[in-house]
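hi! just following up on the protien thing from before. the input was this:
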Amino acid sequence: MDSRKKTRSAKQPDEETVKDTVKLGTVFGFSPHRYIPVLYLSAAMLLLFAVLVLPGMLRHGSRVSFASDPVGAEIYLNGTRKGSTPLELFVPAGNYRVEYRLPGIDPQAAEIDVLGRVVGSLFFPRRLVHYSHLPLEDAQLSAVLSSAVRDYAGWAAVGKSSTHHRFPPVLSQGMDVLMTAAPVPVTSERINTGRELLMQSAAHTVDSSLLRDYVRAAALLHTAGAAVGPGGMIATVQFFAHLHNIAEALPVLLSEALPGTEAERLNADRGFRSFVEQKSTALVALSYEELPTELLNERRTRLGTPFVQVPAGRVALGQSRQGREPSNLELPWSKEVASFEIMEHAVTRSEYSDFLAENPRWRPDNTEELIDAGYVTQDYLQDWFDDMNPALPVTFVSHYAAEAYAAWFHGRVSNDYPDSQVRLPREAEFEWATLLDGSDLFPGNFRERQNAGPRPAAQGEQGNLGLYHMQGNVWEWQLDYFAPASYLMGDAGESAGIERVVRGGAWVNSSNEIEPSTRGAQHPAWCSPFLGFRLVVVPGEQS
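and the predicted 3d structure came back as:
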């Protein structure tokens, strides 16, 4: 018997297929085969409307490209700044007044009608190009120069740039205006202005971004704004070689302006260290030369104010008398100072009141107008109506006010002294007079006296020249612009900028903080309770 069992395969039942049928009903009596195509068509038309028409309705206008010669002009639409050329932006449809502005150049204005495109503006926007030519006249050269130097000096005062925050190329932009603005060819007056721009700004080149801008400006000058070729490159190198020959310590300036690695490499160079040591040794020797002891102590009274004669001499400008180690930027330099006269004391409140009596514009009740003109701050003559001693030095006066006083004083005495000029002192003159006077060798009106304010201008110790308060009492405005590296440039060129030098220290300072070489800087409109001024008289050729 066969023990194997026969198995029968089980029959799997068929899976049942379930079919659901959706039947669209009528809509408003319309059957599906009629309204479905209408829905599809409507969706397609809505999509086309959203893509082709709606953008033109929501942003109806044109893409406007603004261009100018020279480039870099600021664009104003109906008085609102939009940017600088070359510039492209969307402008809604309408009528606009467009202005092109460049510092020192007369602005150019025009009326433009901006239209729009409704259909297809997303893919094919309406475009408009507007161009303006800004001619540069020789009479405007000084304005372009001073604007570029002020902007450049302003960025130098900010501090150091970084990889994330580089300074704008304001100097090369100013040079580009000088070299490329019509009419062409470039005149000799523009070339001379370009050279002056480089000389006045050199002492502010204390950062790698500024150095890059300075080199580009020099290249623009020597290529007349064209692309740099072999000839232009050679001329640029020759300019820097000439600058090195006439400046006191241009390599030291480079050590401050070069980027970190390159600066370290230069500072480690034997030749560079030897150069710095030789400079320092020579200036230390000069600083220990005996100052003249036979001082004539001549005096002359002008408008009732005594002036003291200061002899000519040579000073190690910036040399510390307290043994302080100067930074590279403060490396002293030898300066020849011609003979001049200096006021025995700072200008007093009484003397300034005589000026106000003849110059209503500078009276305290006209402060708002002076503020609008940029000549003073809100603190101008803030204490003028207080019951204060008229013999005190006048304070809360700006540099502009001090220069206005000097011009008024000069006008009053010019008939009697036609060959002389009255002005604020240069910082070399002030430091030289302070050294000769020996003002740093006796106690001045500093914080150690625990005074509540300044002393009368003509009260206290007098030095060898018979001067009052050349150190302490109040800081005093100087004629010079402040530039961080002005000592390194020496007599290579007079620096310009935005801030003015102040000297002497004030009653709020410690005597340890102030010496004859101490210098500070303030914006010329600044008015402070710690800041006054005095005048000097120089021969006409020194003015």
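The chain is about 35% helix and 20% strand.
The chain has a mean pLDDT of 87.
cheers
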